[in-house]
């Protein structure tokens, strides 16, 4: 297969992103989303990729499905994958989505009753350069509600890690409190969430697909035992453990 020059690849991906972006649904679509306590929600998924240290091509693609609201493990899938697309800033989804989508498809084929009703993604959704991050990409292609939960702030569309941002973080007094991430144009792209009383560093929540921002925020907070919501935390821990067991001489990243 011929490899496109980076400039051509960026143009191709920009076009695909713009087309897929039009399919994103930024509102609640499921009955359980409209219930204060999420009645009817029984399965939440989490996805993550972990790389061997010093190797940006071979990774463990991880899917977990947890019960809700107890957050007990129902299913896990760890798969070593070889990433073929290059890393280009702003286009991470083209590099990682295929393998996360495959994990969901394997589950749907083998144990459809365990398919998650919503997926929490380690990355951004609408809080992205072109408002189409990994959580949007996976949501549109899978058809599942998805939420982007990033551990670090993406400085995009006028949102900056400056004194104002640090002051807003300091104003969050307890778990569940948040403030909006507002672009230069005035659009709220996501929210910074203090996810637990014990954690002063927020996570950054944004819509992926088929869920509203307020619902995404409430659900993310309800899935937090620690700073990182449990579906993503478990996916991260289990993918790292898989690498430790199968590649004991290589530290994970």
TrEMBL record:
It comes from Oncorhynchus kisutch. This is Endonuclease V. CDD domains: Endonuclease_V. The keyword Nucleus applies. One of its GO terms (molecular function) is single-stranded RNA binding. It holds the Pfam family Endonuclease_5. Its main location: cytoplasm. InterPro entries: Endonuclease-V. Belongs to the endonuclease V family. Monomer. Interacts with PABPC1; the interaction is RNA-dependent and stimulates ENDOV activity. Keywords: Cytoplasm, DNA-binding, Endonuclease, Hydrolase, Magnesium, Metal-binding, Nuclease, Nucleus, RNA-binding. Endoribonuclease that specifically cleaves inosine-containing RNAs: cleaves RNA at the second phosphodiester bond 3' to inosine. Active against both single-stranded and double-stranded RNAs. Has strong preference for single-stranded RNAs (ssRNAs) toward double-stranded RNAs (dsRNAs). Cleaves mRNAs and tRNAs containing inosine. Also able to cleave structure-specific dsRNA substrates containing the specific sites 5'-IIUI-3' and 5'-UIUU-3'. Its cofactor is Mg(2+). It is found in: Cytoplasm, Stress granule; Nucleus, Nucleolus. GO terms for biological process: DNA repair. One of its GO terms (cellular component) is cytoplasmic stress granule. Gene3D superfamilies: archaeoglobus fulgidus dsm 4304 superfamily.
């Amino acid at each position: 297969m011929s490899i496109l020059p980076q400039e051509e690849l960026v143009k191709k991906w920009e076009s695909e992103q713009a087309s897929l972006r039009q399919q994103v649904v930024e509102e609640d679509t499921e009955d359980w989303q409209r219930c204060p306590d999420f009645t009817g929600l029984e399965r939440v998924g989490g996805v993550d990729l972990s790389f061997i240290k010093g190797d940006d091509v071979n990774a463990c693609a991880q899917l977990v499905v947890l019960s809700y609201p107890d957050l007990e493990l129902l299913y896990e899938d760890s798969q070593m994958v070889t990433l073929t697309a290059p890393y280009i800033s702003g286009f991470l989804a083209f590099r990682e989505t295929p393998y996360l989508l495959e994990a969901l498809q394997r589950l749907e084929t083998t144990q459809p009753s365990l398919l998650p009703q919503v997926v929490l993604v380690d990355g951004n959704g609408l809080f992205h350069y072109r408002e189409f991050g990994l959580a949007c990409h996976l949501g549109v292609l899978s058809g599942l509600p998805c939420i982007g939960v990033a551990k670090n702030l993406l400085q995009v569309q006028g949102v900056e890690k400056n004194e104002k941002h640090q002051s807003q973080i300091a104003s969050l007094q307890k778990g569940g409190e948040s403030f909006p991430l507002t672009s230069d144009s005035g659009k709220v792209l996501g929210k910074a969430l203090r996810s637990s009383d014990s954690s002063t560093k927020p996570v950054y929540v944004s819509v992926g697909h088929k869920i509203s921002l307020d619902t995404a925020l409430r659900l993310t907070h309800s899935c937090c035992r620690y700073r990182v919501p449990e579906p993503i935390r478990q996916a991260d821990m289990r993918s790292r453990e898989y690498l430790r067991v199968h590649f004991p001489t290589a530290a994970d990243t």
